[in-house]
Design goal:
It is a single chain. The chain contains ten helices and eight strands. The protein is α/β, with parallel strands linked by helices. The chain has two domains: 101 residues, Rossmann fold (3-Layer(aba) Sandwich), CATH 3.40.50; 105 residues, Rossmann fold (3-Layer(aba) Sandwich). Strands 2-1-3-4 form a four-stranded parallel sheet, with helices on both faces. The protein has a four-stranded parallel sheet with strand order 6-5-7-8.
Length: 216
């Protein structure tokens, strides 16, 4: 009999659910349970200590719901908490770690695209810490696709994806090694890869393998 694992997924926005569902659609060992708290992302520039307490409280609530592991899909949530604040009796999987692993394997200069400027500082700080911890040297440039993130918040998914694809076309002429940092950007990155043949690193590339290694 196959013993399924309950994986609790903490999202900043409901639009991220479909990306995780698609990634795990053929993985019978994992049952996904989604938790969404969009209010946190709206408060991210305010009291950091209060927000960190709120995220910690959410993780403890998820743990109490009989989860076998927790996947945090928002880098802002991850950046808010220190390692000691993530200590639970079940594994906590951070979506950015397999992404950082892929970035650190690239030896050439690379551009990382964002649509949410509020995510940049926390993500890049964590990337630098990850690289230092693993004794890696990275050469990255950040580009924010301005006036785009509000489109996905408003539910204008097609316009959001089109803006990202256009930005990828603009960047690819000047930089061969490109990544998108946010889960909401994955669909556009995949479409661009299919159309152009250019590889785009994104947060789902290595995630399933990483998660399965954590819940076995």
């Amino acid at each position: 009999m196959l013993l399924r694992k309950n994986l609790g997924c903490l999202h900043a926005h409901h639009s991220n659910i479909e990306y995780i569902e698609q990634a795990f659609q053929n993985i019978e060992k994992v049952e996904l349970v989604h938790f969404v708290d969009p209010g946190l992302i709206q408060q991210i520039s305010k009291n950091t200590d209060e927000l960190a307490f709120k995220v910690k409280e959410q993780l403890e609530w998820m743990e109490s719901c009989d989860m076998d592991a927790i996947l945090i899909t928002c880098t802002n949530y991850i950046a808010l908490l220190g390692e000691e604040q993530m200590e639970l009796s079940i594994p906590i999987i951070k979506i950015d770690e397999p992404f950082f692993e892929a970035l650190c394997e690239e030896k050439q200069p690379q551009t990382i695209l964002f649509t949410n400027s509020e995510t940049v500082e926390g993500t890049m700080n964590r990337l630098q810490q990850y690289a230092l911890l693993h004794e890696k040297s990275i050469n990255t440039k950040v580009k924010v696709i301005e006036k785009t993130f509000e489109l996905i918040i408003q539910g204008k998914k097609d316009a959001y994806n089109n803006a990202i694809i256009q930005a990828l076309h603009d960047v690819v002429g000047e930089q061969q090694h490109i990544s998108v940092a946010q889960l909401s950007m994955v669909e556009a990155a995949r479409q661009f890869e299919k159309e152009s043949g250019v590889t785009i690193i994104h947060p789902l590339k290595l995630l399933v393998k990483f998660v399965m290694g954590s819940v076995e």
